[in-house]
Design a protein that fits this description.
Number of helices: 9
Shape: globular
Oligomer: single chain
Radius of gyration: 18 Å
Length: 176
């Protein structure tokens, strides 16, 4: 459902649009595997400010690739999409740390991480501020959009359109 909502450029929240989202989500689930849907969500989820996608969030907040994150950093990014404007690194750091620690506790209780990893992750502090954008990898410079089209938001749409070498999943669902 969230993947469909992210792909629709914020239409009005009406009962009719909710029905349309349900239909599109059902079609999405029939066409893609759970892993593909999770990948689509992770690459298009908002992470506060104008940071979109897990990889961009990793670079913006921690200066590393996703596979290099600690348990605490990964848990921090896992709770950010729930409410990216309310809980972020610059504002309400205590609330963010509390949510992160609650997730880490659930992971430890479920046996996903051991006690040592849990203790190390909980002792890690939440970063104080996002990193500045200069020095981060230039994602838009590699996107297949022309210089004329590089207005506000056009690069994100272009990356969305060409992610994983496929056409835009939302257009495919709506067209079919």
């Amino acid at each position: 459902m969230q993947v469909v909502r992210l792909s629709r450029d914020n239409p009005k929240r009406t009962f009719f649009n909710k029905i349309v989202e349900i239909i599109l989500a059902t079609r999405l689930e029939n066409e893609y595997s759970k892993d593909e849907i999770l990948s689509l969500y992770a690459s298009h989820a908002p992470f506060g400010g104008n940071v979109v996608g897990i990889e961009a969030a990793c670079w913006r907040y921690f200066g590393r690739q996703p596979d290099e994150l600690s348990w605490a950093e990964a848990a921090t990014l896992a709770v950010l999409p729930n409410n990216p404007s309310m809980i972020n690194l610059s504002v309400n750091r205590k609330a963010l740390q509390k949510k992160r620690d609650r997730l880490l506790t659930r992971l430890r209780d479920a046996g996903k991480i051991d006690s040592l990893s849990y203790d190390l992750a909980v002792s890690e502090s939440v970063p104080t501020n996002p990193l500045r954008c200069h020095g981060l990898p230039r994602i838009c410079s590699t996107a297949p959009c022309s210089k004329e089209k590089r207005g506000r938001g056009s690069c994100r749409r272009s990356m969305h359109r060409y992610s994983n070498g496929r056409s835009t999943f939302s257009k495919r669902i709506i067209k079919d």
